[in-house]
Structures are given as C-alpha cells and as structure tokens.
Design goal:
single chain, 338 residues, alpha/beta, Spore Coat Polysaccharide Biosynthesis Protein SpsA, Chain A, 2 domains, ten-stranded mixed beta sheet, 39% helix, disordered N terminus, Glycosyltransferase family 2 protein, Glyco_trans_2-like, glycosyltransferase, transferase, Glycosyltransf_2
Length: 338
C-alpha cells in the first residue's frame, strides 16, 4: 500500500451551543492542506453556532453547515455529517477543540491502517494563548481490541486518561464495508462504542507518537454532564457487543466484560444516589436490598467515594499545568530528551 498523502480528509464537527469556540475549531481544520470538507452539524443550539459556522467559510466552499431543529445527540450529528460528506478519510473534531498546524502530515505518511490516531495535548489554560506541542521521537504501534479495552478501564486515584479519548482518522471505505455508524442510542461513550465495534470487525488501529490535536479542558464541558441513564445505555450496548455470537474470541470477550462491569458499577452507584436524592435514603436502601446483584457495586462505590474524599483532604492538590504547557494523553519521549 502506498502513502496516503493524496487522500482528502473530511473534518466532522458536532456542535451544541458552541458559538464561542467553534470558530477556532473550523479555522484550524481549514488551515490543513489535506482537508477537503468541513461538515458542521448544529445539534439544536440555542445560540448562533450555525451562523458562526457559515461565516467561517474561507471562500473555498469546503464548509457545509447542517442544523437540527432539536438536539439529537453527538451520534446522530456525526452520522448526518458522514452521510453528507464524500472524502475518503473522516476526522472527528470537537467544537471546543482544535488541530495544531500540520496535524495530518505524520498520520498520512503511515500505511496499513483503518483507523489512525495521534496524541492529544490537553490545554488547561486560556486557549487563546499560543502553544505548540512537543516533537516526539517517532514510534508507531498497533492497538489490538484487548489493548484498546484495557486502555479504557480507569483506576481510582489517577487522572483520567482513557485511550477512548483519542480522535482517530477513519477510512470511509471501512465504515461502508461493514455498515458501521455511530450508535444513536448513546450520548456517552459513543466513540468508544464505534471503535470497539470496528476492532471487533478486524479494523487495523494504529497510534503514532505525534501530537496534532489540542483538547481544551473546560469545567462546563457537555461530556462531563452525562445522565445516569447514559451510563446504563453504554453498558447495555457493550453487553450486546460481547454477546453477539462469533464476534469476539474468549480473551476479547473477557476484556470487554471487565470494562462493561466497571461501567455498570458506575451506573448502579449513580442510580442509587439519584434515588436517595429524589426519594430519600430509606428508598435508596430499599432499592439496593431489592437488587442484590447491584449491592456490591453500590457499597464499594460509596466506600470508595468516601475514601477518595478523605485522601483528597489529606493530600495537597496536584500542581496545575503551567500556562503555555500541555498535558499529554499518551506517554511519549520528546526529541529534546534522551
């Protein structure tokens, strides 16, 4: 297979009330030479997100804006964008993030992949401040399904850094061959679900040590305000994948089950806490006693939260990331280091 530098990229941006941030996202996509299309889906915004998107067309005709009259969720928005585009490569960009210059060059020089991702640089300071990512010693690696699932199992007491946050470029022909689309029942973990199904169908997922994606850390991020039922839908979707006859081998199914149980435990705890908040502690306890299969997750979750609170009170808070610096999702060795 030859290099992919001649392939055009479609950048897909699902946006909800993102008028203040989407301009930088669109501009960063249009600045990349391989980008042939930028499809923005305004997912029922109450601000001027769609108007900002239309105004950002640089005259090249590459920007297309689709507007939903009501909010339908990121999966539906991304599916609509995929259907409205034609470029052979698809790249997801969140409406409050952006690409660093030259984001696609390193990826498109690689071969033998169906999905390819680079590192993410998290920005904890004012995103208007100019910052450039480190250059890393080149390294590529293939993610197996088991690697991917294990890399999405979080651990208490550590900063979240699941590899499901990665934003791979995806080959359209792989999606078409396997009739793959985002699961529109999901409003949480929709990326994880799509990548898991792709890997189960034999996708080659390559990761490179290069950082071209800037993720702005915001306290009011929509992804941080999921509902309890969103967790329930995610674990049920994962269970359905695991139980699809002939899709996974025994080791893959075991890995998926570990992640599925973690998501289900979070759901059970959140559901218990919701009942306690809305109907009182006695009702929550009765709910738990009526579901003995959920009781271990609830009890361990409550105790774990209390232990975490005590630990946080005793420990000094982690040092903030200095202004002008990035926190990287994946460990890598900068060129300046030996």
């Amino acid at each position: 297979m030859t290099g992919m530098t001649g392939d055009g990229v479609c950048v897909i941006i699902a946006a909800k009330d993102a008028a203040d941030t989407i301009g930088k996202a669109i501009a960063s996509a249009l600045a990349e030479a391989p980008v042939r299309e930028v499809v923005v889906v305004d997912d029922g915004s109450s601000d001027g997100t769609a108007d900002v998107g239309r105004a950002l067309d640089d005259g090249s005709g590459r920007v297309k804006v689709i507007r939903f009259d009501r909010n339908r969720g990121p999966s539906a928005a991304r599916n609509a964008a995929i259907a409205a585009s034609s470029s052979p490569l698809i790249s997801i960009l969140d409406a409050d993030d952006f690409f660093f210059p030259g984001r696609f060059e390193a990826m498109l020089q690689e071969t033998n992949w169906d999905l390819i991702a680079d590192n993410i640089g998290f920005i904890h300071h004012d995103a208007s401040m100019s910052v450039q990512p480190d250059r890393f010693h080149p390294r590529t690696r293939q993610l197996s399904l088991i690697d991917f699932v294990n890399g999405n199992i979080s651990k208490r007491g550590t900063q979240r850094g699941e590899i499901g946050f990665l934003k791979p470029v995806i080959r359209r022909d792989f999606l078409l061959r396997h009739s793959l689309r985002y699961n529109e029942d999901l409003r949480l973990g929709e990326d994880y679900d799509l990548y898991l199904r792709a890997l189960a169908l034999g996708a080659r997922y390559k990761v490179i040590d290069h950082c071209g994606y800037g993720a702005v850390v915001r306290a009011n991020s929509l992804s941080g305000r999921h509902r309890t039922e969103d967790l329930g839908r995610l674990y049920r979707a994962e269970k359905a994948i695991r139980e699809t006859l002939g899709l996974l081998d025994a080791q893959q199914a075991a890995a998926v089950l570990r992640h599925e149980r973690q998501i289900k435990a979070r759901y059970e705890l959140r559901n218990f806490l919701d009942i306690g908040k809305s109907r009182g502690k006695p009702a929550a306890i009765l709910h738990m006693l009526g579901r003995p299969d959920a009781a271990p997750a609830i009890i361990s979750g409550v105790l774990g939260d209390k232990l975490d609170a005590v630990t946080r009170a005793r420990k000094a808070p982690p040092a903030p990331v200095p202004a002008g610096q990035l926190r990287y999702l994946l460990p890598a060795v900068p060129v300046a280091q030996k």
